[in-house]
Amino acid sequence: MLRLGGFRRVVHRLSRPYNVLAMESSCDDSAVCLIDRLESGPKLVDHRKSTLNSAKEGGIIPIDALAHHLQQLAPLVQSMLEENGRPKIDLVCATQGPGMFSSLAAGLQVAKGLAVAYNVPLIPVHHMLGHLLTPRFFTNGQSPTYPFLSLLVSGGHTMLVLSASVTSHRVLVDTIDIAVGNAVDKCARSLGLVGNMLGKELDEFCRTGDVAQIPDDLNFPLPLEKRAAASSLAFSFAHYASIMPRVSKKFALDPLEEQPEEIRRAIGKRLQADIFHHISRKTTRALNQLVEDGVIPKTQSIDFVCAGGVAANSVLRSTLETLKSPVPLKLHFPHLEWCTDNALMIGWAGIEMYEAGIKNSGMAAVPLAKWPLSSFPSETA
């Protein structure tokens, strides 16, 4: 049986200020940071990141990602410490999961070595917890306030979460197939776009340049809208990734990637609008259900975080800003540089866990490729 690290509550905590070294390696980003945990608020001392370039491969190859972490993590930590006067480290935080097993293992091993060398605690962190807590770093944990909602959108996850505390999370809506970021990447590739971050490429491609007139019926039907599934609280995005070849043949646009930019841009704009409209509809449905169940008072506003790599998308942001919600929403979007995977979010999540009295026997932690947020934290059997 895999051990989740043995979460337990403890009384002893570090007194502020204290220094935190954190790292993220769940996928293809090697990221490290130093945080000075001041009483007045956390201060980001340094953040360094190296991303594997997999544009030629058309996707991330796990063995290449592992090699990248093995080559990059230790030198990133070494240079960061040396260039910041080798500060005393009081706490080490690292991603335990979910993510690519080998990538997670590379980061955890470096983190364990550092924790042993400095003789300090190691806090293994849930990757998605890091994303949803990111806005709280910039407000010293004051906002968003618990309970709050989070729409977590990335290449590996798409879920709407209700968080009652740092350790209590209820997944309201999840994807039944692939994540939105995965679907957007596949669609961008079918439109002939290339790059290391295809979702970003598609967003920028659709925002600049001329747009052709395309038929009104060239659209992408919303998934899970037939009578049997219309009321379901679930996302689905595989439909968008598979429909592109059929659309190009139906409208004599095959091969699609060789069509004029104006046509591909028009299709891309409509595609993004439909994908994020699907997210909007299901999110609204979940909010209505929360109000009907009395979980959220209709007269009370609630904080709403949108985080993860896809949260940087301009169309998604504007869609959420006009979301038809039964309750007032206070939207929180991380700055664009903190939407993608980073070490700051892991460091701050580790700080919140530690200051909540949650200690994880990090030396026993193993990588967890799959780790439902609703089961965090888990006790060791």
3D architecture notes:
The protein has 381 residues and is of the alpha/beta class. It is 36% helix and 21% strand. It has 9 helices and 13 strands. The protein has helices at residues 62-83, 101-118, 127-137, 180-190, 198-207, 238-250, 261-292, 314-321, 343-355; strands at residues 7-9, 18-24, 29-38, 41-51, 91-97, 122-126, 148-153, 158-165, 168-175, 234-235, 302-307, 329-332, 358-360. The strands form 3 sheets. The chain has a 6-stranded mixed β-sheet, sandwiched between helices. It has a 5-stranded mixed β-sheet with strand order 4-3-2-5-6, sandwiched between helices. It has a two-stranded antiparallel ribbon with strand order 1-13. β5 (91-97), α2 and β6 form a beta-alpha-beta unit. The chain is globular and about 65 Å long. The relative contact order is 0.20. Mean pLDDT is 92; it is low at 1-7.
Distance between the termini: 9 Å
Portion in strands: 15-25%
By CATH, the superfamily of the largest domain comes out as ATPase, nucleotide binding domain
Average pLDDT for all residues:
92
The first-level CATH class of the largest domain is given as Alpha Beta
Low-confidence stretches: 1-7
**Overall 3D geometry?**
globular
Domain Gcp-like: 54-348
Subcellular location: Mitochondrion
EC number: 2.3.1.234
Protein name: N(6)-L-threonylcarbamoyladenine synthase
